[in-house]
C-alpha cells in the first residue's frame, strides 16, 4: 500500500504503531495469497470478531501488546488462544500483530480492524467490484457528512445498534454492493475515525489504493461530464505522477471553477477561493 493511500487511515497512530501496522498488513498479504473472494470475506469477519474480543478482554489485550515481554512469547500466547478458534490466515495475522510493538494496546485492536476492512476490499477486488464499492463508500460518506444529525446518530456509541443498522439499510437501499454494506456496518459499529463520514472516505481511499491510485476530491459549482472528469484525471495524473481517481462533489457555494484536494494538498481554482484571496490581500 502506498504512503498516500494509508496516510488517512493511520493518521492517529504514532510512529511505532504505524510501522507495526505495515508489518501486520504484510502478514495478511502472505496469509491470504491466492485466497478466494469468499475466503477473504470470512477472514475479514473473523478479524473483526477477534478485535471485538480484544476490546472486551482488557487483560488479554494488554498482555498481547506488552512490549516488556518477548515477541515470541506474545505470539505464542496468541496462537494458544486463537489457533483452534479461527481460520489459519486470521491466526497468522493475529500472531504477527501480537509479535509487533504498539504505542498503546488499543492500536493493536485498531490495526486488526483496518486489516479486516482491507480483507473485505480484497474480496471486492477479486470479484471485479472494487470500483463500485469505492464509489459507494465515497458517496455514502458525503451523504452522512452533509447531515449533522445523521452523523451524530451513526457515530454515537450509545445509540441502539439495530436502529443504526436500519438507518444504514435505508441509506444504501437494495442497490449497494454486499461488501459496501459489510464495510459500512463494521465502521458504524467500530469507527476508524472520529466521524463516520471521515471513516467512509478513508475506506474509499483504501479501495483506490488497492488499484494503485490516489483519490482527488473535486468540488465543482456544476456537474462535470464523464469526459470532463476523465480529462481532469489525466491532468492530475501528469501532475502527481500516478493514476488518480476523481470523486466529484457539486457545491454551488464555490461559485465557479474547481476546488481539488489530493491527500493533504489543496488546489483552489474556485471563484470563491479567488475572492477570499483578494479579500485577504485588500485587508
Describe this structure in words.
- With 283 residues, the protein is α+β, with helices and mostly antiparallel strands.
- The chain has 3 domains: 126 residues, no CATH class; 84 residues; 70 residues, no CATH class.
- The protein contains 14 helices and 4 strands.
- The protein has a 4-stranded mixed β-sheet with strand order 2-1-3-4, sandwiched between helices.
- Strand 1, helix 13 and strand 2 form a beta-alpha-beta unit.
- It starts with a helix and ends with a helix.
- The N terminus is likely disordered.
Short description:
By secondary structure, the chain is of the alpha+beta class. 65% of the residues lie in helices and 10% in strands.
Overall geometry comes to: globular
Mean of pLDDT:
84
Distance between the termini: 44 Å
Strand content: 5-15%
Based on DSSP secondary structure assignment, what is the total number of beta strands? 4
| Helix run count | 14
- The level of helicity is 55-70%
What's the arrangement of strands in the largest beta sheet? Answer: 2-1-3-4
What does the largest sheet look like?
Answer: 4 strands, mixed
Radius of gyration: 20 Å
Tally of separate domains: 3
The topology string of helices and strands comes to HHHHHHHHHHHHEHEEEH
**Uncertain spans, ≥5 residues at pLDDT below 50?**
1-8
Structural class: alpha+beta
Pfam family, one: OSCP
Keywords: ATP synthesis, Cell membrane, CF(1), Hydrogen ion transport, Ion transport, Membrane, Transport
Subcellular location: Cell membrane; Membrane
Organism: Actinomycetospora aurantiaca
Amino acid at each position: 500500500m502506498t504512503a498516500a493511500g494509508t496516510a488517512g487511515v493511520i493518521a492517529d497512530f504514532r510512529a511505532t504503531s504505524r510501522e507495526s501496522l505495515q508489518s501486520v498488513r504484510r502478514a495478511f498479504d502472505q496469509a491470504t495469497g491466492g485466497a478466494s473472494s469468499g475466503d477473504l470475506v470470512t477472514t475479514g469477519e473473523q478479524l473483526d470478531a477477534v478485535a471485538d474480543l480484544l476490546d472486551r478482554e482488557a487483560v488479554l489485550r494488554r498482555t498481547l501488546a506488552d512490549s516488556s515481554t518477548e515477541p515470541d512469547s506474545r505470539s505464542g500466547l496468541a496462537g494458544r488462544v486463537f489457533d483452534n478458534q479461527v481460520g489459519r490466515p486470521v491466526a497468522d495475522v493475529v500472531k504477527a500483530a501480537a509479535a509487533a510493538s504498539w504505542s498503546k494496546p488499543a492500536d493493536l485492536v485498531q490495526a486488526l480492524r483496518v486489516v479486516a476492512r482491507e480483507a473485505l476490499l480484497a474480496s471486492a477486488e477479486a470479484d471485479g467490484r472494487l470500483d463500485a464499492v469505492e464509489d459507494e463508500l465515497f458517496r455514502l460518506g458525503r451523504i452522512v457528512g452533509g447531515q449533522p444529525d445523521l452523523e451524530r446518530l451513526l457515530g454515537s456509541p450509545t445509540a441502539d445498534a439495530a436502529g443504526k443498522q436500519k438507518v444504514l439499510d435505508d441509506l444504501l437501499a437494495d442497490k449497494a454492493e454486499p461488501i459496501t454494506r459489510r464495510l459500512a456496518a463494521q465502521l458504524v459499529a467500530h469507527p476508524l475515525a472520529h466521524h463516520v463520514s471521515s471513516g467512509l472516505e478513508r475506506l474509499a481511499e483504501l479501495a483506490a489504493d488497492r488499484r494503485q491510485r490516489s483519490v482527488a476530491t473535486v468540488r465543482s459549482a456544476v456537474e462535470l461530464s464523464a469526459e470532463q472528469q476523465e480529462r481532469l484525471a489525466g491532468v492530475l495524473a501528469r501532475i502527481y505522477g500516478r493514476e488518480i481517481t476523481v470523486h466529484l462533489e457539486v457545491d454551488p457555494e464555490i461559485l465557479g471553477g474547481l476546488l481539488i484536494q489530493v491527500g493533504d494538498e489543496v488546489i483552489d481554482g474556485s471563484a470563491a477561493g479567488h475572492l477570499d484571496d483578494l479579500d485577504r490581500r485588500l485587508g
